[in-house]
Design a protein that fits this description.
500 residues, 8-stranded parallel barrel, 9 helices, binds alpha-L-arabinofuranose
Length: 500
Amino acid sequence: MAKLKIQADKTLSRIHKEIYGHFSEHLGRCIYEGLYVGEDSPIENVNGMRQDVVEALKEIRVPVLRWPGGCFADEYHWKDGIGPKANRKKMINTHWGGVVEDNSFGTHEYFELCRQIGCETYVNGNVGSGSVQEMSEWVEYMTFEGVSPMADLRADNGHEAPWKVDFFGVGNENWGCGGNMNPEYYGNLYRRYQTYVRDYHKDYKINKICCGANVDDYEWTRTVLDTCFRRNNPDQHGFMNGLSLHYYVHPNGWQHKGSATDFDEATWYRTMDKALYMEELVTKHSAIMDEFDPEKQVGLIVDEWGTWYDVEPGTNPGFLYQQNTIRDALVAGITLNIFNKHSDRVKMANIAQMVNVLQSVILTDGAQMLRTPTWYVFRMYRDHQDATLVESSIETKQIGSEKEVQVPNLTESVSITADGTLHITVTNLSVEQAYEIDAEIGGKKVREVTGEMVTGDMQDKNTFENPDAVKITEMDGIQITESGLKFTIPACTVAHLTVR
Ligand code: AHR
C-alpha cells in the first residue's frame, strides 16, 4: 500500500491557469484544417473556425494560445496576413513541408479564434528575420486605441477596437531556427526589441517573454539573464515577465524517435523516464533564475513541451502528424503534475501542438475529429487551473523493464479551490501493476469523494473508426477512511479525485 500524504491547510503557490496553455503554429494541418477551414467550407464554422474543434477546446478550458510559431514565427511578416484575403501574399513555408502558405489565417483570424475559444492571447514576434520597426508596428496594430497609422490600418481592415495581447514572445528558439544566435547577442537584442513592445493600453501591461533555453542549456539561461535581466530594479514588469524553456520527449533520441503507436515496454519506460526529466530541467533552470530573481517575478514559461515521434506512415514528414496513445496521456499527467508542483516559478506552459501536430489534444481528418488521450488528461486536470497547490508527497518504488531505465511508479499533485474542494491527480507509470493508495489527509475532513481516470493498455488510442476507445471512466471502490481515503489505481492510468 503506497502512502499519499496531503496537508490540505498547507497552501503553497497558485497554479496559474496558463500552465494548461496550448501552442498552434503554421505547421502541417494545425491551423489550416485543424482550426481554420475558411468561411466557405462545408465543415460547420463560424468566421472560418471549425466549431467541433472550438467546442472541444472550450470544454478543456484552454486558458491561453501561443501563435504563430515556433520556427515559423521568426520568418513571419505579419503584414502579409492582413487585409483582403485575395490580396494576401502567398509564400513557401520553408520550415514545414515546403507548402504554400496563403496567409488566409493572420492577425485578425487569430484574435477571432481566441475570442471563440475564450482564451488569452500569446503572440510570438519575429526577431530572427524581422526588424524592430516591424515588431513595434505589430504591437501598435494590435493594441493601440486612437489615431495612429497602425490603428487606422486595423480599422480599415475591419477591426476598429484594439485587441488585448496578454503575452508577447520576443523571438523563438533564437539559439536555433530563430537566428542561430549566441546568448550574449540575443540578450542584447532582447533589450532592444522589447523596448518597442509598448504598453499602449492604460488598463494592462503586456507580459514580455524572453527566449530561454533548449533543454539543459543552463549556460544560455545564465548568460541571457546576465545580459538582460534588469538588476537593481525592483520591478521587472515592463521589461521581462518570463523566460522560456523548450523540451520534447523523444523516446529513442532525436535521430530515431520511434513510432507513436507501436512500441514495447522498454520504450514505454524510456518515455516515462524522459517525461520525468522535466523535473530536473525545471529545478535547475529555476535555481539559476533564483540567483537573479529571488522574488520570482519572472516566470519560467515552458512554451513548447510534449512527445515527438516519427510521423504517421504515409504523411508529409514536414507536417509532424502523430497519433496519441495512453503513453501520451501518462506523459501529459506526469508533466502537468511537475508543473503544478513548481508553480511558484512555472507560470505558463504550452503543449505542442493543439491540433494535428506532435502531442495534440485533437486530431482531424477532413470533417471528422477525435479527442486524443491527452485531451482527456487536460479535461480531468482543468480543475487545477487557478487553484492553490497544497503540500503533498507520495511513497514510490522504482520500476522498469530495463536495468538502466528505472522510474518511480507513481507521481501526484494536489490543489485546493476557493470552496475548499481538493483535486488530487495521480499517475501510475507501471505497464502491468495496479497499486493501492492510502491517502492520509490532514487539515480537512473528507465528506464526499468522486474519482475519474484515463486508463487502458499502453498502446490504446482513439481512431476515426473508433474515436471513443479511450475516454474518461469512473473510478470505483474509493473508500473514505478515518484518516482520509483508500483507492486503487490501475496500471497505465492517470486519475483525478475530487474530495469535498
Ligand atoms: O513544435 C515544432 C517546432 O519545435 C517549433 O516550431 C520549434 O520552436 C521547435 O523546435
